[in-house]
Structures are given as structure tokens and as C-alpha cells.
Design a protein that fits this description.
Helix content is about 35%, strand content about 25%. With about 375 residues, it is an alpha/beta fold. It has two domains: about 130 residues, NAD(P)-binding Rossmann-like Domain (Rossmann fold, 3-Layer(aba) Sandwich), CATH 3.40.50; about 200 residues, Dihydrodipicolinate Reductase, domain 2, CATH 3.30.360. The protein has a nine-stranded mixed β-sheet with strand order 16-15-14-13-7-12-11-8-17. The longest helix has 20 residues. The radius of gyration is 21 Å and the shape is globular. The structure holds alpha-L-sorbopyranose (SOE).
Length: about 375
């Protein structure tokens, strides 16, 4: 086995914590060398120090430019605001580092393509952190779709609801600034559902969208009012290359919905329903069942035969949101160790970004937008 992977994590906020927990736990469950939590970097040095203290990072740094050139770092983990993803990833690739980058991968498809090409040229492993691909019940859904259990897919309906912005007093943060984030609920939440759509159903051919910003100004932590320049909600219709029709809704104005990502997939032979807030379950309806006992069956996805679950607990002993990061990091470390590619990679980040860009443009211009075929 190769030497242990020395990790340099950039961005010490929420995602930085989720990834730190992944690095700490992964070696206990995956057959990969335990990674070294080498350096955590944040422009806010005290945030880096706090994360280092909490999770045991060995060193702190406040300049990503200094971190990406260090010889003792093998993997760069990008958990910063979206604006800095591209420059960090390109510099990391040019310095021969493996890279994992949070979603949305970039501010635009052009940036995402630059990242993909830089990583490919450098021959490093690259991953876009679409952690919901690593929920066991999503992988079971994928297997069932691939086996033809629900037949030809007619509809892919995805809603992603949160409610943390419905409070008009919630302060202005980087996520409200189009220059930092590229978009609001759209890039943050539709990035996940677009990736799941590509993963489960196939490529999207065209989209037609609408967006709104319900609260136009918010107070900054230093007390002045700032204009919100991103969407609070963005909805779109989609046509898939294989003929399926799609619906995507992302909003942070859904009272009572905290992190509610629901997929409903309807095919010629049956249906599948998934809800992230009950991520250990998958609902399945089969047309082949006898009419008098037909109905949705609820599959508790905790058997050791289910994806990843041989790594965890006996049947019925459920896993949670943080496990998806452990799965993601485990698969990435294995790929680094054996020199093979790992999905979702920067190509997937790029293809997802093409759909996000097209939906954004459609919402501004009120017209259907085609997605490039490749
Ligand atoms: C905030 O909307 C957020 O943390 C996203 O950025 C994550 O990707 C999602 O998993 C949960 O919600």
C-alpha cells in the first residue's frame, strides 16, 4: 500500500467539519490507510485553529496558495465558497495534488471545464463532492433502475426544500452574493438533484426555469443592509436525452422543511421514491404485484447486502448524513491508493454545471435552453 495520504483541507466552516469527521472515521471502516489530518487552511486563522483543535488537524494555514505548493501534502480538499474553487483546484492540479471539491464545482461551466482539464492533464485523482450518490438507498435505486425494475423512465421529479432563509432577519452571508456563490438555492441545492438525475436517469437535454428573490436585502454582521443578488428559489422543467421529463425545485423558503430532498421516479413498470430526511429507506411500487395487494413497499436499506452497509451495523441499525462523507472519502482514498479514477469526478461536476448554467440563463431569459450533448 502507498504511504498515508496527507490531507490539506481548505475552508473551516460547515463542510470543512463534515469532511474532517470523514477523515477521522474512514480508516475504522474502509480498508484504506488512515489519512493524516495534516493542515487545515482558512483565511480566517482563528476558524482554522478552532477546527484543528476540534478534529486534531496537525497544522493550520491561512494562505491556500502556500498550502497547494507544499511537498508534504498529497490531497487538497476544497470546502471554500464557490468563487475560489477554480483557482485552488487548478493550482492544486498543477502541483500534482489529488483533489476533492465541494459542489457546485464552479461559478460556471467554463470554469468547471478548466478544472477538469487541469486535473486530467496532471494525471491526479479528482472528485466532485456529490455525497448523496453515496447514500445506500440511492445506490439501491440505481441498481433497480439498471436492472429494469421500474422499466422505461417517464418522470424524474426532484424537490429540495430548506427553510433557513424564510426568516427575514437571517443575516447576509456569502451565499447571498452572486460574486461569491454564482447563484443561491439553485447552485447549492439543484446541484445535488441534477447530479442525482444524471446518475439515475441520464443526461439532460434542455431546461426551462423560473427564479425569484423574495427578500431583496439583508443585514450584514456589521450592521448595514446589503442587496441579495442570488435566487431564493429556482424551479425548472427538464427534458432528458432518453425522453424522460423532469421537474426540479430548490427553495430555502419552505417552512418546516429542513433538508428535505425528495425524488419521485415513475417508470413503465413501477416507481421509486426517496426522501433524504429518511435516508435509510426506499419506497418501491411494482406493477407486477398482484392488484389486490399492490401498493408502495417500504424497503429499509440496512442489510449487509445493500451498498456500503457491510461496513456498518447489523440490519435495522440505521446510518446518517455524516456517513455519506465517510463513504465518499473512503472511495476517494481507495482510488488514490490504487491509481484508478473515481466518480463523481470533475467531468460530472462540469456536466452538472452545464445544466445549472442553462437553467440560470433560462430563468433570466424566459426560454428553453439546450444543454450541449457532450
Ligand atoms: C446548505 O444548503 C447545505 O449545507 C448544502 O450546501 C449541502 O450541500 C447540503 O447537503 C445540505 O445543505
Amino acid at each position: 500500500m502507498a504511504r498515508k495520504t496527507n490531507v490539506g483541507l481548505i475552508g473551516a466552516a460547515f463542510m470543512g467539519r463534515a469532511h474532517s469527521n470523514g477523515y477521522l472515521d474512514v480508516g475504522y471502516y474502509f480498508d484504506v490507510p488512515q489519512p493524516v489530518l495534516h493542515t487545515v487552511c482558512d483565511v480566517n486563522q482563528s476558524a482554522a485553529e478552532a477546527l484543528a483543535k476540534q478534529y486534531g488537524w496537525q497544522h493550520t494555514e491561512s494562505s491556500w496558495e502556500k498550502l497547494v505548493v507544499r511537498d508534504d501534502i498529497d490531497l487538497i480538499d476544497i470546502c471554500t465558497s464557490n468563487k475560489s474553487h477554480m483557482p485552488i483546484a487548478v493550482a492544486a492540479a498543477q502541483n500534482g495534488k489529488h483533489i476533492i471539491c465541494e459542489k457546485p464545482i464552479a461559478m460556471s461551466a467554463a470554469e468547471a471545464k478548466t478544472m477538469y482539464e487541469a486535473a486530467e492533464e496532471a494525471g491526479v485523482r479528482h472528485m466532485t463532492a456529490f455525497n448523496y450518490r453515496r447514500v445506500p438507498s440511492i445506490l439501491l435505486a440505481k441498481k433497480m433502475i439498471d436492472e429494469g425494475k421500474i422499466g422505461k423512465i417517464y418522470h424524474f421529479n426532484a424537490v429540495y426544500y430548506q427553510d433557513w432563509l424564510v426568516d427575514p432577519h437571517f443575516p447576509f452571508v456569502w451565499r447571498h452574493d452572486v460574486k461569491e456563490g454564482g447563484s443561491g438555492a439553485h447552485g447549492d441545492m439543484n446541484a445535488h438533484t441534477v447530479d442525482l438525475a444524471r446518475f439515475l436517469v441520464g443526461e439532460i437535454a434542455a431546461v426551462c426555469a423560473a427564479q425569484d428573490t423574495f427578500i431583496k436585502e439583508r443585514r450584514t454582521p456589521d450592521g448595514h443592509m446589503a442587496k441579495v443578488t442570488v435566487d431564493d428559489a429556482l424551479y425548472f422543467m427538464a427534458k432528458f436525452q432518453n425522453g424522460a421529463l423532469g421537474n426540479f425545485m430548490a427553495t430555502r423558503f419552505a417552512h418546516g422543511r429542513k433538508n428535505f430532498l425528495r425524488l419521485e421516479i415513475f417508470g413503465s413498470e413501477g416507481s421509486l421514491v426517496f426522501n433524504l430526511e429518511r435516508l435509510n429507506e426506499l419506497d418501491y411500487f411494482s406493477r407486477a404485484d398482484a392488484p389486490d395487494t399492490q401498493g408502495f413497499r417500504n424497503i429499509v436499506v440496512t442489510e449487509s447486502a445493500h451498498p456500503y452497509l457491510n461496513l456498518w451495523w447489523p440490519p435495522g441499525h440505521i446510518i446518517g448524513w455524516e456517513h455519506t462523507f465517510i463513504h465518499e472519502i473512503g472511495d476517494l482514498l481507495r482510488a488514490i491508493d490504487n491509481g484508478q479514477g473515481v466518480k463523481a469526478d470533475f467531468y460530472d461536476g462540469y456536466r452538472c454545471q452545464q445544466v445549472l448554467d442553462a437553467a440560470w440563463e433560462s430563468s433570466l431569459n424566459n426560454k428553453w435552453m439546450a444543454i450541449p450533448e457532450k
